[in-house]
Amino acid sequence: MESHQHIMINRRTFVHGSAAASALALAAPMSAGFARSDSALRLVAKPGSAHLLEPGQPQTPIWGYNGLVPGPTLRVPQGQEFDVELINKLPQPTTVHWHGIRIINAMDGVAGLTQPPVQHGDSFNYRFAPPDAGTYWYHPHYRTWEQLARGLHGALIVDEAKPPEVDQDLVMIFDDWRIGTKGKIDDASFESMHDISHAGRLGNILTLNGKFTQDFSVLSGQRLRLRLINASNARVMGVSFDGHDPLVVALDGQPVDRPFAPARNTILLAPAQRADLILDCTEEPGTKSEIVAHAGRERLTAGWLVYDEKRRQRQNVLADFPILQPNPMPTDIDLDNAAPIDLVMSGGARSAFRSAEYKGQELGIRELVRKHKKAWAFNGTVGFPDKPLAVLETGKTAIVRMINKTAWPHAMHFHGHHVREISHSGREPQRFWRDTVFMQPSETVTIAFKAHNPGKWMLHCHMLGHQRGGMSTWYEVV
Ligand code: C2O
Ligand code: CU
Question: Residue 168 forms beta bridges with which residues?
């Protein structure tokens, strides 16, 4: 019983010399996977296999876009229309959700809310012009807790007309996997009530860009733009770069007002969150430095910055930080005339949760758990309700007070809009525009946004077992 609760990410860091012995080839430039937007793109969701484990260990059967984990990195210029055909070759229906994009509602990819699920053998055309530059990602929005965990996700990079000058622009997708015997995904745990009602389905293997460890070839003196994405189901992680002092220039796609150095040089990423960093390669030629993922007290080697013997000729001026231009997102929130919305989060293990409404009926916790595998509620209702949490008129500011009455952290994701904290119990609010807001147990976080994007938008916890277990609702902008 206890052991199940303590599945940890593999302690590979402590295996002496494992990294050196792995003899990984240097990472192929990510551009190998880049798809240009001038031709219509095709994403085939299908089974495949990936080498997620250490060299010498078996391959893992996965589901991936074009059979790959992660799926191809898609790049599109800001504001340019982009056309993607999804072909479903999975044994289940699926959709694609473009996480963090202020997209037109019909393209948001939420099965049952914005489109019918795409059946096996069918296809669907997604066409939209991403309004904001930055680092986004895509994944299914049908049985997400299973499909994402099987490997269906990839980066969507929206390029600024004038990107800051850097020597390399690198995508780093962190994921954690629960691998069982013979290298297979532990799929019995997708429906584990323990995971659903606790911290979600945590993995035992961490990958960076689908690899057990991933090397990145750099030159001393180079300036890098790193696009970090946490694609895990439930794992909150910190990422640091030994010996380096990166600056955060954007979060969840949106540029920050002023670049800043994260506390302890570690970037905290809750599930679904992203960060854009500027990192100057300040180490000596011929050295290598560790890319570390921190999960709780675990310290894992995710990969390495491998310094070439050569040096980059022109040295960067360290003070000359590129600052990203703000996106054309409405930031003029009107707190005085706002619509106040309360969202009380309850349920989960170790809580006083006794009953909740599910599909129009008040049910006791036993029945919710045993019959429906539900354990969480928003405002006393287990998701997904027929009625929206709120109906907002276009132009109206919404203030959502999220009250976490549970014993667990949550990663609250808003579709359709980015939101900004205006208060955060016990500390200063984080004045960033985000699509996924991380909350600790018992915290109350109040966010605001200007409703400007019409349609039906989901609001859910991105710890996907929690979403599966009832933490999901929706709001409508009319
Ligand atoms: Cu990243 Cu509702 O999703
Ligand atoms: Cu949650």
Answer: 224
